[in-house]
Amino acid sequence: MKKRMAIITSYFAGETYGMLGPQMAATIIQGHTAFECIVIAVTRDDDKLAIKKALADYFHNQRPIIGFSTLSGREDLFSLARELKEEGATTILAGPQADRDFVGEVEWERYPYRFHGLADCFSFAVHGPAEQAMGVFDLLEKKEWRNAYGLLFADNLNRVIQAEEKAWDETYLHSVRWDNLYRVGENGLQRLNISTGQVLQQIGCPYAGHENRVAIDYPVSINDWEGRRVEISLRGCSFCDVASDKGFYGELDMETVLDQIRCLPGDEDGRKIAFELINENPLHGLPRLLERVNNDDLLLSRINLILRADWLIGGEERLRDALKSAQEMGISILASSVGFEAFDDRLLRNFHKGLTVDTNIRAIQLMRRLKESFPDVWHYSREEGAIHGFIHPTPWDTHETYVNTQKNISIYGLSRDILPPHSTPLIIHHASALGDWIREVEKRENFHFKRYGSIIGWWDNPLEFYS
After folding, report:
1. pTM surpassing 0.70?
2. Which of 106, 241, 257, 439 has its CA 20 to 30 A from that of 196?
3. How far is the C-alpha of 39 from the C-alpha of 92, rounded, in Å?
4. Which of 146, 165, 194 is the last residue of a domain?
5. SS3 content of the chain, % helix, strand, coil (to 5)
């Protein structure tokens, strides 16, 4: 039997979207090592015993080698990894912030309440491009595996040793298998047929391309908060741990992108399934992409775009050109997620969005006008499948921010087509810029907030004092 590996990733129950990062990693591993590799999507409701049984059936008498990627801070998956490791499996942490999560929160040895890291849950971690795993697997039975690129492991003294990472190499980004994603069902592993994939066109975010020094307001839960701020260095939005992890690498070559599109499954009409174009600023190159798709006779169904409000406004002319081409080609364009995040300027400043409420409103008005011009091609509303960014609650919520937000929701009719069914609470990952912010607040005020694994519980009442 061929050697086997599995990658476990966080998932939402009832969904049928693909997982580009883990599935591309599995594609690279299977194509360039001696290991067969699948991805297992695990929801919060999945039974742990059923997961373990499915893994036992998959590995048979082989020692399990199990990667964990894109875990969304889920403590249940951290616990599962620890149990599997204790039961003899090789467990590997990968994906965004794998290095910081493995090592733990800054100065946790000095402040024991901070997140201690995941070195006890995983045999080792790999941070950076997925092809680095090739060096690990080629030397897995030898001591030399500890010299592999991007590797982190704890030595005999529990010191974390970290190797240099490789740079991104487009050679490994042309191909993605979309038939390697599984769920745990009543009868074990069952292949998940996806309806929406992803195509990687840009690594990181241009807004995270430069480091900035900014001042973030104190949490309003602290007495005498008004006028008090903490200066931090950051890349991109203050809450974004992916921006702080990747920064901005740049765009991939057009041929790499087209090859990924060719890998997508087809729908009932023979067109490629809908896919999210992973590019935070896609409008500049969208007309050219559609031109190449048309010249190469690739039949697409729908392209989902992730956009910033200011870049949407600045790219209006290019977007209109793209919509005209899409109309001729029978392709739908969905603004699946515009990062509005808030409709109060103070909140936007603390998010370091680099835009204002006025910018958000102008972007919404533009989307509505485009719907009038291209009703069958352009989609942007909640009813059409869009989930736009709206973060609430936050540490800076006041009566004033509430009034401003409700006023704008009412004046511009945002409940009609823009607001998601539920807002997203602000999540502070320990390695995000807001992690630095809240740690400084804790030091100044001589208290701390509870940690939920890799997440800092800013919403809780501050806990015991420390010396």
Report:
1. yes
2. 241
3. 13
4. 194
5. 35, 20, 40
